[in-house]
Backbone:
């Protein structure tokens, strides 16, 4: 997922309240409907597409005639999204296959650039920080525009979905009550005394230890390399092996366990709307329309329900995606 990750810290009294500015209706419509018309501007280090073209730009001149290979990161939600992309594309008459669980963003982005996969579910803010770790944008529309500049020439970000899933930094209720923790700013009074758990990449990511130190002045006694909002990090938080855990805001276990998502008053964590990243050589009008239709139908609440079906009820992500796509009119027949 994370990669994305995966892909929001919220006040403890309301686990769904955003701590970064909510995108305005104008910005959301701009992302859902207008971004397909925005050209992807060439950036340094762009790769050559497999069909011999430059692949740059969002003109819609690509071709999906050979089908698309969709890759996903190594967490539940991203796999569900990959299968949803496949269902939406098949419903539009495009051949699609899924290569799930490939790894973190540091693995799947190079795979996309090299043409091993053609399409990837991503998360706006963390994707931008992957290519530009100095980026300051936090609002969805601004992030979309920044991605058009930051992405390599052969890649582009298609219109983002209504659904959003942010990284959150969570603690148990016991830890929050004991130390008076309600926001990330509160961690500074325990500087160097707590244990942090998350995926290995958190050690070098802005939305991770780097940002927590630079923005909130917080360091930790120990970093435990675990997984991305998966059973390892959640088990460690539950047992007390870690004090602060990097989870995802749509993870059903947060509410089930009464964990506290620490507020983010300095907006370290940007908007994380789901955004398809595609090789431009494959991004024809049929693909764009299919993914935009999916993005308009998929809300944060619906995505959280799909995560619960897989993580809690132990259903297969491909079956969950197929059923949801059918119920929402995205498949044929």
Residues:
């Amino acid at each position: 997922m994370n990669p994305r990750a995966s892909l929001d810290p919220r006040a403890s009294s309301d686990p769904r309240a955003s701590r970064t500015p909510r995108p305005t209706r104008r910005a959301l419509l701009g992302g859902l409907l207008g971004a397909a018309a925005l050209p992807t501007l060439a950036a340094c280090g762009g790769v050559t597409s497999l069909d011999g073209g430059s692949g740059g730009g969002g003109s819609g001149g690509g071709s999906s005639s050979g089908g698309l290979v969709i890759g996903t990161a190594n967490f539940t939600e991203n796999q569900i999204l990959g299968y949803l992309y496949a269902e939406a594309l098949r419903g539009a008459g495009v051949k699609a296959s899924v290569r799930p669980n490939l790894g973190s963003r540091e693995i799947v982005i190079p795979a996309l650039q090299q043409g091993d996969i053609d399409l990837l579910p991503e998360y706006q803010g963390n994707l931008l920080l992957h290519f530009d770790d100095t980026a300051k944008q936090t609002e969805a529309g601004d992030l979309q525009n920044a991605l058009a500049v930051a992405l390599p020439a052969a890649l582009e970000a298609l219109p983002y979905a209504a659904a959003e899933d942010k990284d959150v930094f969570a603690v148990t209720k016991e830890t929050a009550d004991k130390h008076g923790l309600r926001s990330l700013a509160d961690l500074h009074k325990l500087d160097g005394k707590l244990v942090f758990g998350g995926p290995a990449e958190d050690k070098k990511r802005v939305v991770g230890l780097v940002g927590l130190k630079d923005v909130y002045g917080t360091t930790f006694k120990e970093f435990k390399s675990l997984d991305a909002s998966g059973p390892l990090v959640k088990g460690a938080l539950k047992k007390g092996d870690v004090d602060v855990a990097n989870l995802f805001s749509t993870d059903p276990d947060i509410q089930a366990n009464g964990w506290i998502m620490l507020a983010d008053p300095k907006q370290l964590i940007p908007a994380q709307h789901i955004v398809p990243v595609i090789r431009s050589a494959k991004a024809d009008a049929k693909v764009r329309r299919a993914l935009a239709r999916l993005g308009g139908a998929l809300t944060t609440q619906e995505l959280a329900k799909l995560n619960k079906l897989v993580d809690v009820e132990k259903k297969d992500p491909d079956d969950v995606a197929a059923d949801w796509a059918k119920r929402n009119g995205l498949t044929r027949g």
